[in-house]
Amino acid sequence: MDWLPDAAIWFWVPLCLIPLGGWITISGKSRKRGLLLSSLGLILVMASSWTVPESDSSASGHLLLTILGPSLLLVYGLYGMVFGGNVPVGRLDDSSRWSGFVAVLASLAIFSAMHWANYTPIWRGQVNPYWLVFFPTFLLFSTSITSLASIALVGYGNERSSEATKMAMLSVTLSGIALSAMLFDGSSTSAEEFRGHFWMTVADLLGTVIGIIFAITAFAVVIWMYERNLAQPKSSPPPTEKEIKHVVELSEKHIGGEE
């Protein structure tokens, strides 16, 4: 257990620097320092497989380093697809839509090669355990997001049919990759193993959505019951003639103009 102090210094402290730097960046106090702090933390976490190879947590850093390239390519592609269309702010040139779409397909091709070709993230001589969780989660979450984005662009967007079509195609492609992984063995992962992790991901996602719905419902019910039990203000009776006469006398006495 002599590696525990090294793991705290080279993994857990850098891991804490990532959200801390993000908070500093969002707060606007020092954006450059915040970005530098988050970047330094991320680099140290990704290097943990070399700095603290004895720690089991270094498997997450190994996975982050492995998927960094295709993830950045995916982010670039989505950015080009979204802001290369008819948007009022920050619009890119029209070629960004197609270059972004190609970048997204290239990213998915790399992720697919990591599953079916001999590019699966290997850690300590076996498949990285975090990869087995990441890949089905990535496919399921991305399919849901792209399908919802396509529907939203059609329903609420203005002249965004081209982007909606690309999002729908992307959703179909992701669904095809997930279905293929459930039917065909990968280079280091069997289809049965993938199906097990995939259904666990579905259960986690459904549980999260149901939990959010219950939380919102409970909050709304509590607020409704609280407001319902509040004492309703009673309307005041109309003033009597004596009260009206008194108000008139006060008005004549204190509110008068100069003659």
Q: Can you characterise this structure?
A:
- The chain has 259 residues and is mainly alpha-helical.
- It has 2 domains: 1-55; 62-227, no CATH class.
- It has 9 helices and 2 strands; from the N terminus they run αααααββαααα.
- A hairpin with a 2-residue loop joins strand 1 and strand 2 (126-127).
- The chain is elongated, with a radius of gyration of 30 Å.
Q: How many discrete structural domains? A: 2
What would the principal axes of the Cα set say about the shape? elongated
Total number of helices: 9
What kind of sheet is the major sheet?
Answer: 2 strands, antiparallel
In terms of quaternary structure, what is this? single chain
What is the helix fraction of residues, given as a range?
Answer: over 70%
Poorly predicted ranges: none
Structural class determined from secondary elements: mainly alpha
End-to-end CA span: 97 Å
Percentage beta strand: under 5%
The SSE string, one letter per element, is HHHHHEEHHHH
Number of strands: 2
Quote the average pLDDT.
Answer: 84
Rg calculated over all Cα atoms: 30 Å
Strand order across the biggest sheet? Answer: 1-2
Write the layout of secondary structure elements.
Elements: H1 4-27, H2 31-46, H3 48-51, H4 58-83, H5 95-116, E1 122-123, E2 126-127, H6 129-156, H7 161-183, H8 191-228, H9 241-254
Antiparallel strand pairs: 1-2
Report a brief summary of the structure.
By secondary structure, the chain is mainly alpha-helical. The protein is built from nine helices and two strands, in the order αααααββαααα. It folds into two domains: 1-55; 62-227, no CATH class.
